[in-house]
Structure formats: C-alpha cells, structure tokens
Protein: ATP/GTP-binding protein
Organism: Streptantibioticus parmotrematis
Amino acid sequence: MSPRRNRPHRAVKPEPSRDGERHGLERTESWHGEEWVMRPVSGSAGKTYRCPGCDQEIPPGVGHVVAWPEHAGVDDRRHWHRACWNARERRGAKVLRSRNAPRH
C-alpha cells in the first residue's frame, strides 16, 4: 500500500487583497488619529529590539509586531510585543524608566 498524499491536488491561489491590507498579513490600523501599518513578524531576524510599549527587549526568535505610520519612512518602524501593540490604547504616553536604564 502506498502512503497517503496529504497535500492538495490543485494549487491554491492567494485571495486578492481587501481594503486595509497590503502584502500578506500587513494591514492598517487607526491610532491617535493616524493610520498605522502593522505587520506581524516571526522574529527570525536574529536581532534584539526594544518595545516602545513596555521598554523591554524583544529577544531574537520571539514573534512580534512591526508598526509604523502609514506616511512615514523606514526609519519610523517600531517593533512591539504583540500584547503591547494590542494594549497601546490602555497604556500611558510616558514610559517610566529607572535612572540607569538605557535610552534606546
């Protein structure tokens, strides 16, 4: 008996993009009266980032969100923990740091 084939017999075509979506999982969200582009990433870049929501590091290999204002450049991209991005409306505008904390 031959093994069962678990893949589809025909190729699945990607759906056309809907309003608010760009490439793949990239989409726009409104925050502080501005449109922001948000993209979930797998965290496989091998770099450490600092989340602007909680001011903690995002280690390599941890999935997170990259967000930037829609009409801004590449330099304005920020890497957020998913929970921090989802809670951005409930958080205060100023992040409290200790005296010796780095200012990244």
In short: The mean pLDDT is 77. The chain has one helix and six strands. Strands lie at 27-31, 34-41, 49-50, 57-58, 64-69, 78-80. The longest strand covers residues 34-41.
